[in-house]
Structure formats: C-alpha cells, structure tokens
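User: I've been trying to design a sequence by hand for this structure and keep getting stuck. Would you show me what you'd pick, starting by listing the structure so we're on the same page?

Assistant: Good idea, let's start from the same input. This is the structure you sent:
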C-alpha cells in the first residue's frame, strides 16, 4: 500500500469498528431491544452493520490501489457526515454512549474525507504513470512519487510546540469534564444543555486526532487544526456567559482552555505560513 493511503485506510477500519459498536450500543443484537424490532429506531437498528460491511469492502478495495474506490469512499464520507449526526437524534432516544459513538464516527469520517481528497488531489497532479505508481499496492515508499506526496516541511521546534499545546488543551478539556462529574458513576450523560458537558471529551479527542497528523507538517491538517483551535477558543471564551452561574474552578478551566486554544491556533498558523514559504523556496 502506498504511503499516503495508509492513514486513510486505517481510519476506514476504525470507522467500521465504531459502526459495529454503535449497533451493539443500540441493542441491535440477538435478544437486544432493537434486534428486528420495527417499533425501535423504526426497524433500522441493523443499518450500522450494513454500513460497517460496506465500509470494510471499500477499505479493502482502496488498499489494493483502486482510485475509483477512493473517490467512492470520499462520497461515502460525505454521506456519513450527514447521516451520523442526524440518526443520533432522529430515530428516537439513544443511550448517551451511542450518541458519543455517532459523534466520534462523524469526526473520523471528516478526517477520512479530508485525507482522501488530499490523496486524490495529489494523484491528479501527477501524470498517468505517476498516478498508477501512487495507487500501486506494492509501491516503494522511497519512490519519487512518495517523496512528492510527503507533507510540507515543518521544523522540529514547531512540531514540538504544536504537539505540546494540543496535549495541554486536551488535558484541560478532560479536566473540565471530570470536574463536572462526567465520570463512571457520576452524573447522567445526555443531549440536553444541562447534561451535555461530557462533550468536552469529544473536543479533546478531536484535538489530539488532528494534531497527531498536523505535527508531521501536512498543510491541510495544520489548517484543520487552526480552524478547530479557533472554534474551541470561541466556545471556551464565551460559553461561560451562556452557562452561568459557573464555579470559580469552572471559570478557571474555561480560561485556561481558551488560552491554550488561542496559542495552538497561532502555532498552527505560523506552521502553515512557514510550510508555504518552504514549498515556494
């Protein structure tokens, strides 16, 4: 499998596992509440397993070097980005863990969509011979095509700063969730404003997932990290005005997270600018 395809295929396999987990959490198994029961989820409790099977087949075809399968999987990611958030609420009440899995799957699908588009755009920029080599399942990782597809350069110092700030931001977000008692045996996890504080865990996972790719210097992932950090800065800075009253500890954690998110956004923006300058040199 060509180097640029490996992360995309790995995320496809992860998405399949999340879809299976969603079916199990929904009770769609022999003896479960949603197993072949028309009254539960409108009889659609089995669909995550069908999606997982289709996703697995697509991952195998992409890993074997099929460009058409990659294009089809990009379109499937667009479908899942709409379907996963909607079915988390429209089919009826779901367990909080199932809603979290829906959100995590949508996040993984977003990364698959962006990664697949990046690989496809790189392939379109090559000639037919280079494109075939790029999608060749036995391509040499040290080939010229792989070198061309490598991420834009990023200095070790900038990569360390981005990674450290992402870890700090995720740690503060997780600390806020623990402070709010969203732990096993703690308060109820739900989808209303009063019981949705657990979503900070998803924010933390999103930051770490994107940062893990961004520290390698890919301009696309650095831009995505910048957008995510700005969104978290705005959310952490202004959500206290919506969630009043908050304790002093909560306000302090919101302030720390806003500061870490802004610092991460600035570091990602600087890395993108340096990468662009390096690519033009």
């Amino acid at each position: 499998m060509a180097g640029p395809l490996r992360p995309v295929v790995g995320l496809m396999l992860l998405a399949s596992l999340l879809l299976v987990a969603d079916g199990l959490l929904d009770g769609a198994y022999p003896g479960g509440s949603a197993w072949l029961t028309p009254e539960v989820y409108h009889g659609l409790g089995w669909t995550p397993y069908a999606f997982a099977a289709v996703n697995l087949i697509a991952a195998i075809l992409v890993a074997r070097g099929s460009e058409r399968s990659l294009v089809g999987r990009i379109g499937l990611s667009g479908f899942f980005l709409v379907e996963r958030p909607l079915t988390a609420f429209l089919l009826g009440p779901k367990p909080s863990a199932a809603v979290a899995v829906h959100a995590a799957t949508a996040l993984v699908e977003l990364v698959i969509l962006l990664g697949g588009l990046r690989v496809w755009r790189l392939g379109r920029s090559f000639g037919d011979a280079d494109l075939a080599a790029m999608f060749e399942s036995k391509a040499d990782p040290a080939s010229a095509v792989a070198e061309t597809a490598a991420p834009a350069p990023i200095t070790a110092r900038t990569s360390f700063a981005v990674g450290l700030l992402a870890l700090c931001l995720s740690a503060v977000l997780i600390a806020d969730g623990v402070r709010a008692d969203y732990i096993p045996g703690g308060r109820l996890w739900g989808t209303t404003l009063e019981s949705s504080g657990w979503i900070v865990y998803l924010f933390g996972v999103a930051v770490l997932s994107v940062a893990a790719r961004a520290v390698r210097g890919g301009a696309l992932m650095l831009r995505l990290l910048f957008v995510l950090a700005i969104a978290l800065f705005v959310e952490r800075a202004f959500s206290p005005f919506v969630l009043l009253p908050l304790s002093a500890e909560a306000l302090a954690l919101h302030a720390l997270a806003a500061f870490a998110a802004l610092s991460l956004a600035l570091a990602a923006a600087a890395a993108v600018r340096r990468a662009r300058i390096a690519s033009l040199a």
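That's my pick for every position. To get oriented when you compare it with your attempt: The longest helix spans residues 248-280. The chain has a mean pLDDT of 77.
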